[in-house]
Amino acid sequence: MNVRRIYPVKPTDVYLYATCLVDMFDPEAGLDAIALLEREGIRVHFVEKQTCCGQPAYTSGYEDEARQVATSQMALFPEPWPVVVLSGSCGGMMHHDYRRLFPGSAEVNAFCDRVFELTEFLVQVCRVRWHGVKAAKIVMHTSCSARREMQVHTTARALLGQLEQVELCEQDYESECCGFGGTFAVRHPHISKAMVEDKSRHLLATGAKVLVSADWGCLLNIKGSLAYQGQHLPALHLASFLLHHSEPEVTHG
To answer: Of 14, 148, 155, 195, whose CB neighbour count within 10 A is largest?
Structure first.
């Protein structure tokens, strides 16, 4: 479903949708995302009752269950503020797939229009201008949903491109899936294993010192594969990397 994006002016308040994986495995990334947004002068509201966006149920064909989850989540964000999501995958579910679950609903469409992936929000709404403060040699992995549904691989690159001391290494077959795919990795473990081994091999071949991604599902999958292979490549959520390697440009006048 192609939805033409109209970006609002920079708001004073936003909701943060941390995602269940960030909440469970890397809450520091959520705090770092809050710090990034607050650095831009935005008040961040975190609703503690938020849970899963419903994507596992939806992509497994359980649409009734996915609707129940989506309904419960949308009710948590009553104010007309943007909902900033720390995953292109969850962002794709909430921005695109909620519309499919509730066709013709003006209320749902209005909610979906308020959903932004973090890097998209920073680039297109906040229009941030940063400079780099630390040197780093990194490689980036973008989830399939972030790339193909939300198309935020371009905004992630735009942010990294502002950091003059950061070298972004190019991997072979960059757009290929890491093999996670939510329940795909559980339903088809042998295929998933082969896919992530290919992905990890290409990542290691770049010589990068750090792996970054805006999707923790992919990071968990790749980190697990590297560990089983006896390989090591430090991995960070993109929010954490950006916070610790950038500062806003100082404007005068």
So the answer is: 14
